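Morning!

This is the sequence you dropped in the shared folder:
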Amino acid sequence: MKDYSRYTSAERFVLIALRILIGWHILYEGFAKLLIPNWSSVSFLQESQWILKGFSGWIISNPGILNAVDILNTWGLILIGLGLMLGLFTRASAIAGAILLFLYYLNNPPLTGLEYSVPAEGSYLVVSKTLIESMALVVLAIFPSGYFAGLDILVDRFRNRSK
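The structure's back. Tokens below.
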């Protein structure tokens, strides 16, 4: 078993708080999509204007693929959020969340010259909260916050007992 005592209480607290806050946000987004009747990512994908525009158009033009993307997006958000909040498979959850959020960013980045029909929540230029949250998840993937206060420690103990 690894020794995580080299982290100070403040470092552990900040990493745990960051993990839980981002986990809550992602979990809430997933449940919101699940509870909205007939929710679909089609409106978000229609707004795509950058390097994933063609791919987004392909998804929209294929109803079966769009349905699969909607299901994967909703349940992916829920599972990622639960993983982060519970500290269970934290590294995998953080990596999956970082990739998903970065895909959102690549679809609708705040770049000069791109205008969207839906008004932006704020005024961004290149860096948005989606990009920041994605990078914060990369930080969480690097540091073992699931072992400080989370179920990862139980999984680790179970693995070590099985050896």
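Headline: Helices lie at 9-35, 42-46, 53-61, 63-86, 90-107, 129-142, 145-148, 152-162.

More detail when I'm at my desk.
O.
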